[in-house]
Amino acid sequence: MTDDEFDHWCKQQQLTAQILLIIAAIRAAPPSRRVQGRAKNVSGVYPSRKMGQTIQFESHTVELWAIYQMEHDPQVLEFYDQPPPFKIQYQNQNGRNIGHYHTPDFFVLRTTGAAWEEWKTETELKRLAQKYPSRYQKTETGHWHCPPGEAYAESYGLKYHVRTDTELNPIFTQNLMFLEDYFRFTANVPLSITEQILSSVKASPGITIAATLATIPGVRANDIYAMIATEQLYVDLYAVPLVEHWRVQLWADEQTHTAHTYLAIGTTGDHRKITSPTTLLPNTLLVWDSQLWTLVNLGETTTTLLPAVGQPMQLPTAFFLQLFDSSTINILTSEKQTTINEGVRELMDAASPADLQRANRRFHLVQAYFQHHTDIGKDIPQSTLSRWVKQFREAEATFGCGYVGLLPRTNNRGNRLSKAPTDTSVLLDKFITEHFETPRQAPAASVYRAYTRACCTANIPPLSQRTFYTRLKKRPIHEQTLKRQGAKAAYATEPIVLELARTTPRHGDRPFAICHLDHTQLDIELRSQVTGRNLGRPWLTLLIDAYSRRILAVYLTFDPPSYRSCMMALRLCVQRFGRFPQSVVVDGGKEFHSVYFDTLLARYHCIKKTRPGAKPRFGSVVERLFGTTNTEFIFNLLGNTQASKQPRQLTSSVDPKQLAVWTLASLHTYLSEWAYTIYDTSVHDSLGETPLQVYTDAMAATGEREHRRIAYNEDFLMATRPSTPKGNAKVQPGQGIKVNYLYYWNDAFRNPVVEKTKVSVRYDPFDMGVAYAYLEGRWVKCISQYYSTFAGRTEKEVLLAAQEIRQQDKRNAVSTNISAKRLADFIAAVQEHEILLMQRLRDLEAVGVLENLTLNKEGVPQFPPVSTLEPEIEAHSQDDEQLPALQNNIELLDLTRLPILGEYR
């Protein structure tokens, strides 16, 4: 809201001066804390269009869903995350008084008033209610409230609400996420296409998206989704997910949808629901003549029903619907379904294949008895057959399923109670809990000896060692590992969460919905193409689409993970696809939480999700791809480090450092070829198709979204260039702007209006010879005062030089004052310094990678032809003494002519 709108809202609410001060302080204050992912929570930030800033969330299935609801709720005017904390007091379950500062999740301004809101899951609230009964309480109407929070809010005339995940409709939230690209950005649909779609929908109200695409040539799913987002078409967003286009019904407007709904209700009776595919789905349980039936298929001409016992039955669909409309056939209610099916399910789950085989034979004989076929089962005694018939009828009367009465009950025979003395058994369980399942990690044999000693002291007979180990194996392995070895060791045995929610797939419902970004150090040694020196192992950065498993970007560098690697991966994604991910999943690395990275994501409306620490399954898509890259590509190259994993068996003939032949630029070329071509067109085990095919089909079904395309031009490159911590610099007369210890100059600084003013600045982390200043509505290029020295130097190299100067000053006990001249002089003598020399060699290798990423006339990255490298690798494999040139335009290097430098100490 603007200031005038806020003042008008305050007058409508008739707020006191004290309340106005509190609300104004909350609106002006930044978030009181930075959220963090705990346990299994995925935290992150959401770029809010309504608020014009990023909003934090601690759970992407509760708080993020709440943000989506508030973002699209017209009743919500403003909402602020992590408002200033306030103190609350309450008692725990033991009656002890507790007082602490509490930070609610949001402070929300609605048309009806203002309130603090705390969002939690229903399960968590039940647990907290037992632990803190005076803090969280559930009313008779089923709503949760927090008396301490409400008391604080009421003292200022405001509200405090406790809200749960049960208030969030998963289908509606998923549809909001699906349409996010169309809400934020306008998609231009040709008028002729719009008219054709509207005509078709008006002619056939309730037609599905799939039917519309099939009947109107030239119409794409992208056009329909754009019309839904702009309210030219109406869809019930609470009904079915939009991605299931064969079920989504289209209406001309909401009034038409409501009218047809009332018409259907009036036809079938007020107490009936609409007979539609959303009501009568496969596996729906029906009651017909007091018997239980399962709807197998509701076809256009024939409907198939399966009885509880017996063969399937087929009815004409018209006749079935007539029985359904006349209430002869009814849908089984949840209470009846629970009562009837619980006992049946328990009995069927406990039955073995042999038990089912015996029950099938008995069922066949009982059915023959009912049909008076006396010639079947003559070898069965009459008393046995009568007992089976009685069991069948009793089970039919009790469970509605006579079949379960014929299941053998041999497992219930005999004495199933433990024969061990109670005191001995209880003491054994106590020793397992208190002596074995502890961080001490005592051996099982030692615990058993202590147990027998305790039994002798108590004068009771101990159980056998075999019983002790058998009981150990029956203990839950996850809880046992958690108590003995900790959470990280127990993570491998933790149950896998297959879905984020009941209806939300964990990998998204379309390409670019969820992408994973991560780094790893490749298992291969590389050499310098200039000196032939071993430069170590490179770092690989991958950006992968979770839905299609397609690799969106590959970036290779010698530098450890930093915001520069993240920036280059996102640059590559835009360069190749012209798209930015809707959400990016990252880990807790510092490079993912820099101001530059967060600013870039917010600039292009990308949600950042931080997966919990020590929980690699949350990033299983990209983690698994790292392993695939090694096994399918890296391990087939000379210099791979498999032999280094067993250092005691390592010899010079298999030492990766001696066998290294690849350079950074060459490895990047062929790694990109493998990722973008070979892997992309190979069948993926999890998908059953190639990533490229899944990507192509999904884009056509869920919308190409061309309006979200980003041009890979100077404007985009400028947005990816970082700024200084302050973000601006003062224009000094005659010197220019100072960025990272260096002064930069442009003739535009001569303007008296510009002098001594602060301007926004950016710099290129791969070329410190230039910087950029925002003057008079445009970015101008500025040249360093020591351009010849810093041109082509990376930010990493300059920072290392500055660190080395500080170390020298510290050893010499002088004050550290780093200037551009000292940096230039220091870098000029770089050959005398081992650290900077190694960094310079690595930066020179990266030049080849950056050149490969430049655009050609067609706007795609340039890669050398695949066939240029193979003969040279074969030649080198025959003679390891020479280092062949891996590119045709580089001559062989004579190492004997290179000067030998003294070792730097």
From TrEMBL:
One Pfam family of this chain: Mu-transpos_C
Keywords, in A-Z order: Plasmid
Top-level taxon in the UniProt lineage: Bacteria
This protein's record includes keyword Nucleotidyltransferase: no
Gene Ontology biological process terms, A to Z: DNA integration
Domain Integrase catalytic, chain residue ranges per copy: 507-699
GO MF entry, a single one: nucleic acid binding
Protein's name according to its UniProt entry: Integrase, catalytic region
